[in-house]
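Contributing new complexes? Match this layout with coproporphyrinogen III.
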Amino acid sequence: MSTVGLHIAAFESRRGEEMARLIERHGGTPHVSPSMREVPIEENKQAIDFAHRLITAEIDVVILLTGVGVETLTQVVERHIKRERFLTALADTKTIARGPKPVAALRRLGVKPSFQADSPYTWREILQLVDRYVPLAGLHVGVQEYGITNPSLIAGLEARGATVIPVQIYRWELPIDTTPLNENICAILDRKIDVALFTSANQANNLLALAQQQGLLDALHEALQSVVVASIGPTTSHFLRERRITVDLESDTHKMGQLVALATRCAPDVKAQKEKLSKFLSSQLTAVTEQQREPAWQQSIFLRACRREPVPRTPIWLMRQAGRYMKEYREVRAKTGFLELCKNPSLCAEVAITAAERLDVDAAIIFSDLLPILEPMGLELEYGQGEGPIIHNPVREGEDVNRILALESVDSLHYVMDTVQQTRAQMAESMPLIGFAGAPFTLASYTIEGGGSRNFLHTKTLMYRNPAAWQSLMDRLVQSITLYLNAQIAAGVQAVQIFDSWVGCLSCDDYRKFVLPHTRQLIQGLQGGIPVIHFATGNPALYPLLAEAGGDVIGVDWRIELDAAWAAIGEDRGIMGNLDPMTLLAPEDHIREAARDILSKAAQRAGHIFNLGHGILPQIPVQNVILLVESVKALSAR
Ligand code: CP3
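Output block (do not edit by hand):
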């Protein structure tokens, strides 16, 4: 497919003709249909009520989202209230303008905004600004909205303790004549469109609304999978993704011309890739339906053991099986920083698969780390040379918790979901793939200590002295981890593991009081019906409580004998463990004996997965790890 003759759909209304000309100038065939009509809300009671409350100083902060909105608001209000009074009240209130357009509109009215959010002017920048300069706890915040409400912004403000008063100024309705928009939907359904351009979330909203009215929503979604979708910027992309439309291209300038140029330049390549993928997926689908079979991983000994079904031998995999103890990994790391590696899905897939194949283990775990999830939650993460991770802005005081953002989407962690997809696609179908995340306590401890810790002094100080702040931090973590693990499940993992690596520093009472309800909520929020491995180290007395919090398989360390641990956990769960990783420094015979001992404690009961009690350390010789895997396979044959 050449650039010339690309069929490009766009949904511009006021600037429709300009868009069509731009597309033609870039050699494309335009299919531009207006998608919306601006309808001012004439008798806008909400706006008038808002103006009254502003004048009586009941509103502490006003967030202005659009220029046209600021102007229309003033016009609506001045029919009922003296313009001067309204503008003086606005000038006396803290105002936050989302970007240059509302700033310019305010200036024209003689009001200087108190704050202006940074580029790219999405709700995230507004929340960042608020976190830096405008504490909102207990305040009333007016939000001048545009068209569709932005639930992420409102939830973010409420999470910071504000009472939000939304003011809808105008809404975007479907045009009176929907024929052209309908024709565009049909053209997409007939596969006549190569590229769809969206320059606002409202356009997508109305396109989907019309399709829904006609009962064509599912068909449109399916057809859009083979169309190259280009978006003007992050706000529009966010909306599209929320409505299950894949965004292939995003312009970084917010200019129509740039968007058309980007789309015409990149569309042929992107389209070819999308076609290849959709052919592959549909061939997979027909293969599966033709043979009426489930994917091969379902009968793997790892998943059978997770389900506590009988197996011909004990499955084995090893925590931190991809890491510095392995030459192949060190070679990759010589060229790439650790965080950079985590953000490179194809390298992550390579590292995970190489390790699983080299060791010949029974499951692969995605390559990532516990802590990248903390970045979009507002923490500055760094992996120092040779040391552990560092967080530069840890939470210390109760009020610091307010700047920790509960994730509302996993957009910013898309590289992890890409890693899942690529690892899954490149691996043998019989090999199950494990996704993972840190448990709420372990992530809270990093968030508060700012790194590793011996005594967890700061963590326990906050936990004991400020239970409300602790609760709020755990709530934010649970919401974020749930979203993150569900996204990994949707992207294609066969099991998930929750690492509570540092929870062993707690007593049983403290675990029950400060941790158990949160971890339980997390596990209950996981979807997809796949096995959950719940792992902790350090304090064997906690294992029954871990089981109470949830998990199909409990991961245990070497500080307790496997049979005693299993008895404490209960027969209705699987168990994973539990060789001391340091054993791998011992002579071969010792390693073999230690493996035999653990297997004898498991006594071939269904539901045992062999693993270490904690991650492999960099100092461990790789041949000893291979020896362990071979020994477990040989010694456990039924
Ligand atoms: O192969 C695998 O198991 C998958 C990848 C994986 C890593 N970390 C890669 C990694 C997994 C599952 C983790 C989990 C993890 N990360 C845990 C829980 C498991 C455990 O061992 O307790 C914890 C506590 C972390 C946090 C973390 N990440 C620490 C403390 C460190 C530094 C110490 C160390 O072992 O290097 C990391 C860095 C890290 N995570 C590395 C790897 C391969 C080493 C980074 C490097 O290449 O320099």
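Reviewers usually confirm one structural detail per submission. For this one: The chain has three domains: 7-36+177-277, 39-173, 296-570.
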